[in-house]
Design a protein that fits this description.
Number of domains: 1
CATH superfamily: Jelly Rolls
Number of helices: 0
Strand content: over 45%
Radius of gyration: 18 Å
CATH class: Mainly Beta
Mean pLDDT: 95
Largest sheet: 8 strands, mixed
Helix content: under 10%
Shape: globular
Low-confidence stretches: none
Number of strands: 19
Distance between the termini: 17 Å
CATH architecture: Sandwich
Order of helices and strands: EEEEEEEEEEEEEEEEEEE
Structural class: mainly beta
Length: 258
């Protein structure tokens, strides 16, 4: 994948195009990027985003303890409840409308499971972001996200601009994660501008044009679809008949090597 955006583009990826894996009984994962046994050299990341997985854990299922290093892990639950525990004593239950942040730093083991006693699955989106601070002590955060009246809610950020807000603090100084909402047939609020924007629709429907002007083709999104937008692409987004809820990454630089 090209690291530097050469022209405005809104690259639509359908949910059904994601790579499907079943790493253990009761677990189904759909990957947006190369992951584990699936490798596509043209699809390893976008901006600073390394993974965006749609996860479904059946009742009683989950990921047992495993290790992460120097990764910012953000989790948004769509349905059900997710139980988190890690080797540094942090524990929490993530429910719809909550955002969880695990900063792996120098190394942390953690487990993520469908909450005990659940009768149905837990469905969630988990995103991995490359930090620009390495080897720090692991950190954990969990907060309820109350949607803003203007439809643009800051969930997590590493930008100095957002210091002192309620947003969870990322160890990436030029990236932020937003929750964007709109009612039926409403235009979305103005989205943050950035060279790289990753948009993942979690509920409802959405229509947009690819670029400004009459040459911008019309596209539509359903839950699970995503758009990788560079520059001023992704124009005039409007919610469908059921409204829209989406997660939007604002990223000002790509993955950094070395």
């Amino acid at each position: 994948m090209t690291d530097a955006p050469t022209r405005p583009r809104a690259d639509l990826r359908r949910a059904a195009e994601r790579y499907l894996s079943t790493p253990a009984d009761g677990i189904e994962t759909r990957h947006a990027f190369s992951f584990s046994g699936h490798y596509d050299p043209k699809n390893t990341h976008f901006g600073a985003l390394l993974a965006c997985n749609e996860e479904s854990l059946a009742a009683g299922a989950g990921f047992d303890d495993h290790l992460h290093l120097d990764t910012e892990i953000l989790t948004w639950v769509v349905e059900g409840a997710l139980s988190h525990r890690d080797g540094h004593g942090h524990a929490g239950v993530v429910r719809p409308g909550m955002i969880q942040h695990l900063s792996a730093g120098a190394g942390v083991t953690h487990s993520e499971r469908n909450v005990g006693g659940a009768e149905g699955p837990v469905r969630f989106v988990q995103m991995w972001l490359q930090p620009d601070e390495f080897g720090a002590a692991p950190a954990y955060g969990l907060r309820k996200a109350t949607p803003s009246a203007d439809g643009l809610t800051l969930l997590a950020s590493g930008l100095e601009r957002d210091a002192g807000t309620e947003a969870l603090r990322l160890r990436r100084s030029d990236a932020a994660l937003w929750l964007v909402t709109a009612g039926p047939w409403e235009a979305l609020p103005p989205l943050p501008e950035a060279p790289y924007r990753y948009l993942h629709l979690t509920a409802g429907g959405l229509g947009y044009r690819t670029v400004p002007g009459p040459q911008g083709g019309g596209r539509s999104m359903a839950p699970g679809d995503s758009v990788r937008a560079t520059g001023p692409a992704f124009v005039d987004p409007t919610a469908g008949e059921d409204g829209a809820q989406l997660l939007v990454w604002e990223m000002h630089s790509p993955v950094k090597y070395g």
